[in-house]
Write a structure and sequence with these properties.
By secondary structure, the protein is an all-alpha fold. The protein is built from four helices and no strands. The protein has helices at 2-41, 47-71, 75-89, 110-121.
């Protein structure tokens, strides 16, 4: 049973990574399309002046969409999590809330990392020979 749960969690993690990668690609494509539409819709005399403003707005909208998508847990993911917990515990469960946590592989705050290093270095174990 533990192997099935591990396989399920691994498959879920791989699926989430693939979805995030696709989302990033789509956000880039959307940004390019928005910039192109803005270039085509502005009058020729105003195009050089408006281009930076339009691109900045498109960038902000794309970043907000990516952030919103990353922070939401889809209903499909909730169903998979509920099924995994049900299989593990042997009784039906209901998930009341879930949120996406920051992955350890994402950018780490250097101050936090240095603090962890200091704490770990402070544990002086005596070596027994």
């Amino acid at each position: 049973m533990a192997e099935n749960l591990t396989d399920l969690i691994r498959a879920l993690s791989e699926r989430q990574f693939a979805t995030e990668r696709q989302l990033g690609e789509l956000a880039g494509a959307l940004h390019a399309l928005q910039a192109r539409v803005a270039d085509l819709s502005a009058p020729a005399a105003l195009q050089p002046a408006l281009a930076p403003v339009v691109r900045a707005k498109a960038d902000a909208a794309a970043r907000e969409a990516v952030h919103r998508e990353k922070s939401e847990v889809t209903p499909e993911i909730l169903v998979v999590i509920a099924a995994a917990v049900t299989a593990f515990l042997g009784k039906k469960v209901r998930i009341r809330s879930a949120k996406v946590l920051q992955s350890p592989y994402e950018v780490v705050n250097p101050w936090s990392q240095q603090g962890r290093v200091s704490v770990q270095a402070s544990h002086n174990f005596r070596l027994r020979g």
